[in-house]
Structure formats: structure tokens, C-alpha cells
Amino acid sequence: MRILGITIPEKRHLEYALTVIYGVGLSRAQSILDELKIDRYATVPDLSEGDEARIRELVESFTLEGDLRRGVAQNIKRLKDIGSYRGGRHSRMLPSRGQRTKTNNRTRRGNKRTTMGSGRVTVSKT
Known about the structure:
The strands form two sheets. A two-stranded antiparallel ribbon has the order 1-2. A two-stranded antiparallel ribbon has the order 3-4. The chain is elongated, with a radius of gyration of 21 Å. The protein contains six helices and four strands. The chain folds into two domains: 2-61, Orthogonal Bundle (Helicase, Ruva Protein, domain 3), CATH 1.10.8; 68-124, CATH 4.10.910.10. By secondary structure, the protein is mainly alpha-helical.
């Protein structure tokens, strides 16, 4: 089964399989299946053609995948353009929601790189 150009995994339960679509999390997948009265624990091969079409129709009514990614990118660009604090944090590749940065920030900043300076070892981002 394909929705919005994404192949839905056949061996997973539907409530988890639908989460491969960007913008569909677990709670939205569960609400979709509940609204259509489809068993959450069914798999793709268990569905009839009509069920697949109903799921596809309902999922495509949301803003997902490319449109959602584009919207998020535009929001971040807007924050950068107006010069807000959050936009500056995005520009400098730092966390924008108030987390500490002295330690525990490797996901956002990347791996530590050790460089040799003038007589002492310094750690830089790049």
C-alpha cells in the first residue's frame, strides 16, 4: 500500500505502519483507524481495497510530507529573517528551546573535534 508516495510496511500493525508518513504520529494514526473503524492491529495484507482507499483518502486530507516539511522550513526561515532569538539559535545550530549548552548538547552541535592550538588542546565544533 502506498500513500503520498510512501510505501507502508506490510508486516507492522497499521497504527505503527502509518507513522512512517511524515506528519502522522501514533496518536493521529490511532485516531484515523478509530474514525474509520479499522482494527489497529491489522496489517496491510489484511485490508480490503475499500479499506485501503478510505485510509488513503483520509490521510491525504491532512497537510503531510512535502507540504508540511516546506511549511516548517518556511517558519524557521521567517524566524531567521525577523532576527528573533529563536531564529538566531537555529542559524547557529544550537537548541532553541532553552536547554543547557555547557554539556549534553551533542545531538544538535555534532561530535566533538579536538584541535591542536598553541601549546594546549582545544575543542572546537568543526
